[in-house]
Amino acid sequence: MERGDSYTITVYTLLRDQMYVEAVEILRMELETHAHSRAALSLLGTFQCLGSWILMSRFVGFCYYHMQEFPLAVEMYEQLCRSYPDIQDYHMYLAQALYKSGQYESASRKASQLDGEQYIQRIHLLHAAVYYEQNDLKATRSILEQCIAQEPTTLVFDGAMEFKEGDFEKARMRFHDAIQILGYQPDLAYNMALCFYKQKQFGNAMRQIAEIIEKGAREHPELSVGSKNDTTCDVVSVRNSSILRSSALVEAFNLKAAIEYEMKNAQGARDALLDMPPRSEEELDPVSLHNVGLMNMDVDPNGGLKKLNFLLQNPPFPVETFSNLLILYIKHGFHDLMADVLAENTHLTFQLLSRDLYDFMDATVTLQTSPEDAYRKYDELATKHIDRLRKLTKRIQDARVAQNNDEIKVSLKAYDDVLEEFIPVLMAQVHIYWERGNYTQVEKIFRQTAEFCSEHEAWKLNVAHVFFLQGNKYEQAIQYYEPFVKKNQQNLLQVQAIVLANLCVCYVMNTDNEKAEELLRSLEREEEEESVRDPQKQLFHLCIVNLVIGTLYCSKNNYDFGICRVMKSMEPYHRKLGADTWFYAKRCFLGLALTLAKQMTTIRDSTIDEILEFFDHVDVHGKQIRASTEAEMHQNENSRSHTISFEARMLKRVFLQLRL
After folding, report:
1. What's CA 472's distance to the chain center, in Å?
2. pTM of the full structure
3. In the listed set 99, 115, 131, which residue is the last one of a domain according to the structure?
4. Residues near 542 by Cβ (< 8 Å), separated by ≥ 6?
């Protein structure tokens, strides 16, 4: 066999087996030998047009496609077009590569220069794609009308248009029609799932997702679906291969995570992301990185904020990144950082934020300098939302009278959407009075909004909190806290720890100690069972409950019981001791030290002995733990942070002096 035949067979065999790294290496060697080899240029350019390869300095042949370096494909096809100007295919490939690299005007101009009947459909689709990316939907629709109506690519494009215009049912039918012609395609099945998701039909979306995952895992076991968990760090990356892209597994798992997250199942969302084919963090696509950051905020807030900031500084990024970062900064109390991000990205403000969300952010910025002006802005925004809720309530009532089920469904969804926008505004309003300790006014505002919000979980939870903090309405607080606990009676670890803690305090203050003790026993039993199932998992529910109860007794000057409860909350130390738990524990010890120094109270000698022994244990287990919380480190980036061990020794010295 001649060298040329061997060369061709080798290259096409590698292409067939999708071994693009090896194929590119051979082709580049050929190019070095024959600088203007048409075959090598064409094949190499084809890879780049489809997905691109990036050439890394460490080893030749690293896949351009991996990083989707479409500009490299442009360079390749420009060289081909200069060398062989009469071959129209190369000009078509160049136009496609220009489009993929984001050079839309150049792509459109190059496509317009092409001749030949066989290119008409592809040229129309390329022009439509350019207009679509530029959000010129009218021009896109005009071009699509010139395309072959029942051609699968046209159907898919029509579906994308319907999706962008918000008609998710029509979009789904377009994707379904395309599947009927082409057969099952994972990417089209994903598009259908996404339409169901947008329609809040989570069950249908999950069924589509399950089929994508099942087929992908069965047909491509090398993608290692489900091989990763919280404790495995050494799983081999499958990289961003063409097989992974064609399987739509990444998209499916991201959508599954989004559904779990929207259904308030944070652990389910994290599990969905872990089940995704394993890749290193550097290999994650923007959507996956965004979701990993967002859905791990409750366990790694610092890491989540870093990921979203990275995406914002390295476009392209998911359109939700900007608004989510701003909202998370507000949620975690970093108002200055939120204002900085808003000021540094004014070009994104009107492009990616709705008018209502921008007004909310503007009011929050104002809050830092003028709470009165901020409250006025919040109130104006709240009034708009309430007007919309009233109109939607009327629409729902009219639809029920007319027995129009479709209108009822649409109106209920619109009502829920507006309510979700209203709740953060309401909470921002009451927070201004909350910070001033004016709980009576907070309760008044909550009562005024009960007409619309009384079934919303966040509203009910905060009503419980405001009754609790008033100090004389524990019975009312119990009425709101108990449903949260009863709903998860068999899984108390799913209930917020502060709810359990406050409910226990309410029982104690209501002289119903038996209920408090029973709740504590149930919680302790659940934590022990969970520790057996997952020895590495950190559980803080019982710790927080004991901290709150201990703090309560300390505030009532019953330090002998209260401080012992605080110390108990830290056991076992290797699981419970951390910057956040230590922050609240040490406040009780400092309060006790101050009270003892002023000779305003006394405690038993045995309690002092237990305190000194406690500090010794903290000293041993806190040597590698910084004493500053995440919030403190964000607000004081240049401040020095001691270890918990250091602070425990300082406190021990104080109590030794008080003992003398």
Report:
1. 39
2. 0.77
3. 115
4. 520, 523, 524, 527, 569
